[in-house]
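Project outcomes to date are best conveyed with an example. Our students and postdoctoral researchers have been running inverse folding experiments weekly, and each run begins with a structure described purely in tokens. The record below, which covers 204 residues, was selected by the lab manager from last quarter's runs and is presented without edits.
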């Protein structure tokens, strides 16, 4: 990875040391440091604190390195419980356009969860819809989170549409996910859909 500072180019390997956002709640806070391993230093890494990385991030011109750094800072801020900063860093990482479509989708999922925590349900729904609009294979959790976002913002028709998308795409659901679907359908009086979900649960 190239980091360009003051016209001097150095080749660095950016090792982002973090867990997935979903597991951070169970495994504690994210690491507060990353390792930069200069190739001309025979693999001897130099640790840079997250605060120093944030101070230097404007000097990173390579899109991949910049997006990776913003993603690391987003996850670090989320681990520290700073939701607002985490959201801002995720938006920066996505605007850098330096990561793959798969990585961007995962960041949007993490961003949507942060919006839900921040009770910004409209933005959570918008981001999750963006996740579903990609060419990548969707996961049941994407629809369940989207349905929850619509439910919390009071758009029950959109919530039902999101849940109906699970069966339309033929995505397999485990028993726990089926119970979540059942609860959401039941809360808004979609009893015909409830019947189908109950039959699946009884069969199991």
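After processing, the design step wrote out the following sequence:
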């Amino acid at each position: 990875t190239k980091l360009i500072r003051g016209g001097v180019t150095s080749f660095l390997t950016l090792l982002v040391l973090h867990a997935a956002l979903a597991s951070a709640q169970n495994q504690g806070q994210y690491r507060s440091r990353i390792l930069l391993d200069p190739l001309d230093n025979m693999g001897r890494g130099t640790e840079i604190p997250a605060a120093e990385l944030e101070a230097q991030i404007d000097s990173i011109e390579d899109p991949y390195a910049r997006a990776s750094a913003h993603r690391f800072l987003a996850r670090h801020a989320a681990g520290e419980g700073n939701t607002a900063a985490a959201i801002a860093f995720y938006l920066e990482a996505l605007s850098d356009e330096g990561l793959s479509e798969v990585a961007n989708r995962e960041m949007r999922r993490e961003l949507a969860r942060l919006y839900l925590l921040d009770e910004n349900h409209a933005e959570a729904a918008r981001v999750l819809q963006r996740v579903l609009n990609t060419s990548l294979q969707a996961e049941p959790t994407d629809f369940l989170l989207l349905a929850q976002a619509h439910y919390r913002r009071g758009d029950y028709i959109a919530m039902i549409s999101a849940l109906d998308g699970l069966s339309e795409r033929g995505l397999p659901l485990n028993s726990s996910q089926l119970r979540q679907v059942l609860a959401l359908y039941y809360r808004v009086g979609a009893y015909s859909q409830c019947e189908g979900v109950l039959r699946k649960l009884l069969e199991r």
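The two ends are 50 Å apart (CA to CA). Residues 1-46 have pLDDT under 50 and may be disordered. The training component of this project remains on track.
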